[in-house]
Amino acid sequence: MKKFRDLSKYARTNLKTYGLVIIAFAILFPLQSAGMLSNSLNGQLIPICVYIVLAISLNLTVGISGELSLGHAGFMSVGAFSGVIAAASLQDSVGSEPLRLVFVIIIGGIFAGIAGLLIGIPVLRLRGDYLAIVTLAFGEIIKNIINCLYVGIDGSGLHFSVTDTASLGMSGGRIILNGPQGAVGITKIASFTAGFVLILFTLFVVINLIYSRSGRAITAIRDNRIAAESVGISITKYKLTAFITSAALAGMAGALYAMNFSTIAAKKFDFNTSILILVFVVLGGMGNIMGSIIATTVLYILPEMLREIGDYRMLIYAIVLILVMLLTNSSRAKQMAVSLETKIKNIFRKLKNILRKNKNGSGEVTDNG
Amino acid sequence: MDKMVPYPSGAIVPERDLNKKPILETHHLGIDFGGLTAVDEFSLTVGRTEICGLIGPNGAGKTTVFNMLTNVYQPTRGTILLDGKPTAGKTTAQVNRMGIARTFQNIRLFSNMSVLDNVKVGLHNSIKEGFISSVTHLFGYRKAEKTSTERALELLDFFSMADLAKVQAGSLPYGAQRRLEIVRALATNPGIILLDEPAAGMNPSETSELMENIRRIRDTFQISVMLIEHDMNLVMNICEGICVLDHGKIIAKGTPDEIKSNPAVIEAYLGKKKEAEDNAES
Amino acid sequence: MTLISNLINGISLGSVYAIIALGYTMVYGIAKMLNFAHGDVIMVGAYISYLSTTALNVPPLLSVLIAMVVCTVLGVVIEGLAYRPLRKASSLAVLITAIGVSYFLQNAALLIWGSAPKSFSSIVPFDSISLFGGDLIITSEAIVTVITCIVIMILLNLFTKKGKMGKAMRAVSEDKDAAQLMGINTNFTISMTFAIGSALAAVAGVLLCSAYPTLTPTTGSMPGIKAFTAAVFGGIGSIPGAMLGGILLGVIEIFATSYISSQLSDAILFAILIIVLLVKPTGLLGKAVKEKV
């Protein structure tokens, strides 16, 4: 009985998270189908799904595994562009759009996962600040390389070049990736339903992973690396597990993202995008999956709803980021917050007293509390 | 307590272990830190079910020995044979899987995890659950989790801690944290467990309970216990063999009675007789 | 001739990186934190210098001084408000805060000065030197930058080796608690380090924009990251290391741009950083610190 209650405690939090996503979809999907959503919100549905997946997956690296990665947009980018190439290659052979989208997302995930593996093996030996700066560097490298990449497709298959479109040596066919201009002529096949399913998939993978043998190992390494090693846990293996899973999910999100636009350039997936995702994770609470979902949705929609503050959006993000870090990590700030809370509570209590006394018909208000 | 008897090599082990291969042997072990020799010529044999004490003044290099035995530091010289197999070039995690577990002088728990999960992390390598079953919670996940939870509770019960299973490890009182570290180490199913100052910060009643527990660990799991401790009462009471370290070198090995009367040990702990006299005169 | 000209350009750019890297390395050495916002202090310095010459008609040299003063104050304020409360927090928390500060500075600059690039006019008053009948042109900016860099390096070395404050800094970087017990005001020492680092950032900002005259709110971020790379390359915490790393990085960047690909030069630079960190994680002149168990 006791064990059952223990299980249900985890289950409750997780059910809430799944429930939140499902309910949101159940409300939004009919509205969208009936064309009752405003244009701007309608256009944001898929990007929000994408960023929710990105935030959850980054939370796995930063919150659960405790490694600061500043190159998450890089994996998104790998997923997006491998997805674009896959979509173009499958355009004729796979007629059904939803099925093609599934293939595209899977391929995006696989390539991003491979990138995660290649980057993770050398990088995860580093710690803390160095790891952060190297993931940043990798994000920039990926961006630079894709900026130089030219890909085309014709009857004889895919052609690659790093110089220009002319050197692709194609007979007819069409260009898929055009260097700094990025991917062009994408057939938009992304859908809100696909975004919803991808969020559910991400939740399933990440939450299951957390409450498992691998998840315990990952958290143990975060809490105390040396102790984890001393009980026989391979540090590299589990750091890589978290990193690759996170990268693959980001790649899937990236692929879906690319399928929502007709053109997309590598510079979209830069350092600023990585930071944006990090802001979602930090504000939602490190390691808190539901927090990531809520923070992403709110921070994504809010600036659009408050057009006036549009220019101040990033400034406000920055200030909120700093304040959240100070409030959650500084002992003095914590004390201040607590004393502020008691002060506010006192004021409320006094107000209540005053109200009560007025009700009792006593004109004089004396309060020593 | 069994009589200590010599192996053919000269190392002494409890009589009951004589016919078994020693669990741990080190030969001429040494380590340098930036030209400074921290430990040198450390040769020791520990019997299969021996309780062995490693004592010495502060800074003698005791924890460094533990760090070398668990490959946290790679020794500069010498060899370590764990259950007859050399551990050179292995990682700390690999050495643990070969059968050596430890606790730390400054407690290192996974303080944000529950007591139960701390032990389950210790059981990591005895749980059969791959990445796929981790992610899907299918393919034997439930069975693996159930078995490991039961095993973890059994181990916690050994130290009467089963009722604390859901408590966050970091919020446990000090003594309980030390006990949990031992349980976690035992969960890795070691052949020898190294305890780094297990009685530090404990009151006399806790200490005597600990002594009882250490004997119970040895008797129940039939493993060897090696401990660093400053509490001489504890060391002399439960250790069968004692090794005294001073300035990184072994200055004495033997039974508690031999150690108690060894002049070199007395000198290391109390200073030279002549110095003491000089101090008395001035 | 192009080889020599590239080399000179590389050393000049590298000198700017070196000056920025000094700020990173000093702060990292003493506060054990990666001050991500350092690059944006450069940008602020450049804007201040730009505005005081264009709007207030201040002579160039004085504008540099004003920029230095403003940046010094800015550095100390950032440290006091954002970093000091987190002295005992995890490095992850401090790093995220620093990223927040960096974002704050960039976006504040965007709101104040707009996104349109300002064309910065060089503060160096004399002409470039033409050698070998015009085959080799050494820009005056390059000369000034390299000389400034050398002077700063010598002064800083003297300061940390001889001065009382410098000794305090070295003590704090070795062991903060012990230094405090010896009566050193660690908070003041850390503030001073930020002050010096930020003043240097202002100088670097002016020199950078004199050589590459477009100024936008994000001008500082890439050079900032590259300078950090330089600091890591040379061995973080080491002053000569920052110098060496900066100059090497500048030369590599210019060579990569002119001989391999201008688009890939950043990728090459970062690839080198990664290789260095993997082969020698402490950098070229850094010291290894063993974790205590």
Description:
The complex is a heterotrimer of chains A (369), B (282) and C (293). Chain A is globular. Chain A is mostly helical and 369 residues long. Chain A has helices at residues 2-33, 39-64, 72-90, 97-123, 128-147, 192-210, 213-223, 225-230, 235-258, 271-284, 289-305, 313-329, 331-359, and strands spanning 150-154, 157-161, 174-178. Chain A has a 3-stranded antiparallel beta sheet with strand order 2-1-3, with helices on one face. In chain A, strand 1 and strand 2 (157-161) form a beta hairpin. With 282 residues, chain B is of the alpha/beta class. Chain B is built from 11 helices and 12 strands. In chain B, strand 3 and strand 4 (36-46) form a beta hairpin. Chain C has one domain (14-224). Helices cover 72% and strands 3% of the residues of chain C. Chain C has 11 helices and 4 strands. Chain C has helices at 2-31, 38-54, 60-83, 91-113, 140-162, 164-174, 176-181, 186-211, 221-234, 239-260, 265-279; strands at residues 118-119, 129-131, 136-138, 214-215. The N and C termini of chain C lie far apart (56 Å). Chains in contact: A-B, A-C, B-C. At the B-C interface, loops of B face loops of C.
